[in-house]
Amino acid sequence: MTKSVLLEKIEECREEMILLSDSHDLTSEAVISSSMKLDELINEYQRFM
Question: Is 44 in contact with 8 (CB distance < 8 Å)?
């Protein structure tokens, strides 16, 4: 995966997490799962550095 594609995926996941947090508690499984996915993407991006 290229760095630019990864940045796009990070932004999409971030937006998804924000939308989920508007309709769910921050401790809900959906928000936590989205947050964990975002963490994984950010970690992968940092390995490019």
Answer: no
